[in-house]
Amino acid sequence: MSNIQFKLNGKAVQTDSPENTPLLYVIRNELDHQGTRFGCGTGNCGACTVIIDQQAVQSCDIKLWASADKEVLTAEGLAFDAIGQIVQKAFIDEQAAQCGYCINGILMSVTALLKRNSQPSKEVLMEALNRHLCRCGTHVRILRAIDKAIQQINQKRAA
Amino acid sequence: MSNLTLPANIISNPLLSQWFRLDHLPKVTVCSGKVEIGQGIQTALQQIAADELGVDLDQINWIAGDTISSPDEWYTAGSLSIENGGAALKASLGYARFLAIQAAAKHLGVPFESVQVSSGIFTSSQSKESFTYAQIAQDIDFNSKIEINEEILLSKKQVQAKWVGKSIHRDDLINKLSGAAFIHDLVIPGMKHARMLRGKHVQSTILKIDLDQIQQLSGVEKVVRSGDFLAIVGSNEALIVQAQEKAQAYIEWKNPEYVQEQSETQSMIKGLKSGDEIAFTNGSEKPISKTLTLSYSRPFLAHASIGPACALAHEVDGVLTVWSHTQGSHLLKNQIAVGLRQDQSTVKVIHTHGAGCYGHNSADDVAFDAAYIAKVTGHPIRVQWSREEELSASPFGAPGVIEFTVGLDETGRIQNWESEIWSPTHIHRPGWSGKLNLLGAWMIDPPHPMDETKDNPLPQGGGLRNAITLYDVAFQKVRHHMIPQAPLRTSALRGLGAYLNVFAMESLMDEVASEIGVDSLEFRKKHLTDPRSIQLLDQLAKISNWENRADLPEGSGLGMGFARYKNTGAYCGVMVQLRAEEKIYIEKVWAVCDAGQIINPDGLINQIEGGIIQSISWTLKEMVTWDTQGVTSASWDNYPILNFDEVPEVFVELLDQPHQPSLGGGEAAAGPTAAAIANALVQALGIRARHLPLTPDRLAQAIE
User: Fold this and answer.
1) Of A15, B192, B496, B575, which residue is 20 to 30 A from A140 by alpha carbon distance?
2) CATH topology for the A4-76 domain
3) B378 shares contact with chain A (CB less than 8 Å)
4) CA distance B82 to B568
5) With 90 as the cut, is the pLDDT of residue B192 above it?
6) Do B173 and A129 touch (CB under 8 A)?
């Protein structure tokens, strides 16, 4: 048993799961945070992306030990994050979803990126987004929502 | 059709209580058989419901796809949810409103015509009192049969309608974008996780197995085997996932004999055993001065949902409850019962939102898996398919070949239009033509016999969907060669045969126009008399600057595609601007859609945008591959779909027709988009692409 501790959306949590368990299953099944989705289990689609210490990480592909003593942010925590809530709201405002299954992973990647760099170049943004797949073809709206979030973050900074 | 005819879904579900109840006060309960599959239909149908009843959206308690408490509206498919599901709500809730106004008038002591309904409150200028739906609940006979007459229809004027036609935000997205919301997230107390063990081909059989070794794998509490149906069950999902992979070392599989090595789609499909049927003829042959013969094809395509299929099942007191993201709860319920060899009254299905399915994917199969394992073990069971299963064991979109012989008269007008279509079935859903069609049921011991395939006949059509040209021609003949047994299992994928048929027919229109040296827009219009089609094409040409396409730089091109989905649904025209280098870069897409009266403009635009992007992905990148061992495109590495950096700018314009019936638009864009790409490629490179997908390899071959 591992007895690993970390912070999940600001709250201290502890788990006895073996340290090589994919983080995804610990978050979803043990810690009851199911806004993080299973999509492929091999780090190819991005549906399970969470933020660990400011980095967007695919939680199906990373083991529990890698989160030890770190801060993990999931979709459930976005509303309490200054940048995350702007990103999340922009997606709702633009109705940037169809089935919505891929979106939470994208919200996490975009939030992590905009926390580091609020004016990303197109190349930098595409590098982050190309780690995500969307099958409904909502890309156009997703890009529009991200533009909107970027504008709002920078307006807020300027104010 | 007269307004005074009850819709088909009301005739099969005739009681008011099947659609409307006041059992969840103060909300009004509205029931529908049409379910949310990521297309936003729940919101659009609620808008229709709200305007029939005179309530606000947040006053509706919505129940959809529950076999105990929702009507059976067959499948949520074919872009028919607004056309049929919406019509059923208008009829049933119109009747409910009529009864409610009658009751309110009685309580208020005022004439029927003086009563107004708004936000669920009944008022009259002749009374100071008001009544709510809750207050008149006792007066409504929910067991009465739904009626339709002039009086009922006229009472719609007494409702303050304020929802239809507005871009209402979807309230289901709030939960989906912040936490648990999908079937994947459902937890039943005591639930155990199960995973299926399969060979590389979906109908592989077990040759040799060491059950003891599998039973000893960490996390495995139980192995369920019946014939070739094999599953492992445990409490810890992470361990069960690991065991699923490890268990393969202890199983030897045998592939079905009908699987032969993959070869080029066109010759392979035409080489398979097939039927021969004249599916449609119209008019009589005219003398012609020029004949063109052209052939087009598409490969097997995967639905490739981002969320692999999931289902839960639990048997309590002899009743098996199954939670599923199926498109047809009632049909699935009945077929699960057939598969389990038990009475239909002992199974119920509750629809729960899943990831986008785009047609008949694995949603139903996983539901049977869960039902069977729950039954055998007695535990509440959650089955989650893997990415590999989703891309290899799900039914695929059917491949096809279409060949045309068209005859032109001296003026360059198409007079004779003959086509021949080869395809396996495009529908193999549970309950389709009364058949079982559940993968697990074919595998258990004793197995249910593999169901024969039967394609959807015209006018809806499967392989024949949109095979009849909308253009005015003197003579048309369509011949269908239905393939009963294809190397891979096929079923409905968004648009069915319309994707290939529209791609081919709209490529053909450009080819013929080019052959006789006329503008392809003018050539289309010359063969059209329908004013809505002509208006739409003109608008498309205008917004995309078609007239000045010659100004595009070398290597770029503009091309169009147009169709009316199924010749009865939404009209959609698509213009694509692309640049061709080592691969095709789609730069801009314009679309114009006429879906009659629009319920939710933003929701419709979202569907058209999605249809365009998905079609670009199919057209440029996608093809299922296999060898004699099974499907080899079972990962995202081997079945790539469109990436973010390949996405064009998309501009969608809607032509609202407030006085025309609403038409389904979810599948309207795919075929026109594919044709527009192929047609634009001709201007860009001078190459005509007739066989999908248009990958860089294919492009290089075509250039040579």
Assistant:
1) B496
2) Ubiquitin-like (UB roll) (3.10.20)
3) no
4) 13
5) yes
6) no
A/B interface, count of CB pairs below 8 Å: 165
CATH class belonging to A78-158? mainly alpha
Q: How confident is the model over A43-59, as pLDDT tens digits?
A: 999 999 999 999 999 99
* Residue in A159, A10, A150 with CA at minimum distance from that of residue A86: A150
CA distance B210 to chain A (A): 26
Q: How far apart, in whole angstroms, are the C-alpha atoms of residue A94 and residue A85?
A: 14
**Domains in chain B, start-ordered, CATH in brackets?**
8-164 (3.30.365.10), 186-256+308-391 (3.30.365.10), 400-426+461-703 (3.30.365.10)
Residue pair B673/B615 in contact (Cβ under 8 Å)? The answer is: yes
- Angle (CA) B620 B623 B624, round 5°: 160
What is the bridge-based pairing of β-strands B60-64 and B27-32?
A: parallel
Q: Give the nearest chain B residue to A122 (CA atoms).
A: B645
Helix spans in B385-497 (H): 387-392
Question: Does the distance separating the beta carbons of B613 and A92 come in below 8 Å?
Answer: no
Chain-chain contact of B644 with A136 (C-beta, under 8 angstroms): no
Q: What residues does each domain of chain A span?
A: 4-76, 78-158
DSSP assignment of B8-28: HHHHHS-BGGGTEEEEETTEE
Element (H, E) at B627: strand B626-627
Other CB atoms within 10 Å distance of the CB of residue B693:
19
Q: Is the pLDDT of residue B307 over 90?
A: yes
Residue B60 pLDDT > 90, yes or no?
Answer: yes
Cis before A18? omega within 30: no
Closest Cβ–Cβ partner in B184, B354, B647 for A38: B184
Report yes or no: B664 at the A interface, CB cutoff 8 Å. Answer: no
Tokens (6 digits) for B433: 């033509």
> Is A39 in contact with B182 (Cβ distance < 8 A)?
no
| B238/A134 Cβ within 8 A | no
Distance (Å, rounded) from C-alpha B498 to C-alpha B470?
Answer: 13
Exposure on the CB side of residue B289, measured as CA atoms within 13 A: 6
Interface check B355 vs A, CB under 8 A: yes
Task: Classify B5 in phi/psi space as left (phi over 0), alpha (psi -120 to 50) or beta.
Answer: beta
pLDDT band at A1 (very low <50, low <70, confident <90, very high): low
What's the rounded mean pLDDT across residues B338-343?
A: 98
Rounded to 5°, angle at Cα B283 from B281 and B289: 105
B22/B140 Cα distance (integer angstroms): 9
Strand partners, B29: B21, B61
Cβ contacts (< 8 Å) between A33 and chain B: which residues? Answer: 179
Q: Are residues B485 and B273 in contact, defined by beta-carbon separation less than 8 angstroms?
A: yes
> Which residues of chain B does A45 touch, with a Cβ-Cβ cutoff of 8 Å?
306, 387, 636
Q: What DSSP string runs through A9-36?
A: TTEEEEE-S-TTSBHHHIIIIIS--TTS
Which chain B residues have a beta carbon less than 8 Å from that of A47?
A: 306-307
Tokens standing for residue B249? 């070392």
Q: What residues contact B471, with CB distance under 8 A and at least 6 apart?
A: B414, B417, B509, B524, B527, B528
Please tell me which of the candidates A41, A75, A129 has its beta carbon nearest to residue B387: A41
Is B642's Cβ below 8 Å from some Cβ in A?
A: yes
Residue matched to tokens 């013969």: B293
Does B636 lie at the interface with A, CB-CB under 8 angstroms? yes
| DSSP-derived 3-state class of residue B662 | coil
State the complex-level ipTM: 0.97
Cβ atoms of B483 and B276 within 8 Å: the answer is no
CB-CB under 8 Å, B241 with A41:
yes
Residue contact B38–A99, C-beta within 8 A: yes
Residue B1: is its pLDDT beyond 50?
Answer: no
